[in-house]
Write a structure and sequence with these properties.
164 residues, globular, mainly alpha, single chain
């Protein structure tokens, strides 16, 4: 009887850890050389986004590799209507973990929303990053520049910032 109780207690103590743990997406060997391969890679790009947005905001080799994968997908994907917004980049470069997540968010928005305008893609991706940063569980460092973006969004002026 004691042994069964110990096993039950151990099970319930470890259950939250197993629910929180994330598996790093396997992106090894995924080649993107033509439009067909970019479409095939979309699932991996979304897996990278999911992993990055469900884990704490840390700068490590895994998160860098996943954001680079998303960045490579975006660099030549026919679904990406634009490049980078210099102003957004200048703000997010103060926190590399959030910048990595911004690249993944842009790829996710390009895949799922198919925005026609570059500003809409950048705006939606930035909103995803700000939501992530505001979640205390992600332990993202909110710099003064990032706080200004949060304040602009609260005042419904974030799109104006993106359009500059």
């Amino acid at each position: 009887m004691k042994k069964r109780n110990i096993i039950a207690v151990a099970f319930f103590m470890l259950l939250p850890v197993s629910l929180i743990a994330q598996t790093i997406p396997n992106i090894e060997g995924v080649k993107m050389k033509d439009s067909v391969s970019w479409v095939r890679a979309e699932g991996k790009v979304l897996d990278c986004y999911d992993y990055l947005f469900k884990t704490t905001c840390v700068e490590n080799a895994e998160s860098l590799a996943l954001s680079d994968f998303c960045l490579n997908w975006m660099s030549a994907s026919p679904q990406t209507p634009c490049g980078w917004n210099k102003d957004i980049y200048m703000v997010l470069e103060t926190n590399q973990g959030l910048l990595q997540r911004y690249f993944a968010a842009m790829a996710k928005v390009a895949i799922e929303s198919h925005p026609d305008k570059c500003t809409e893609l950048q705006y939606q991706a930035l909103c995803l990053v700000l939501d992530y940063a505001l979640d205390k569980n992600h332990e993202a460092k909110i710099t003064k520049k990032i706080q200004k973006l949060i304040d602009l969004r609260e005042k419904n002026q974030l799109m104006d910032f993106v359009r500059r």
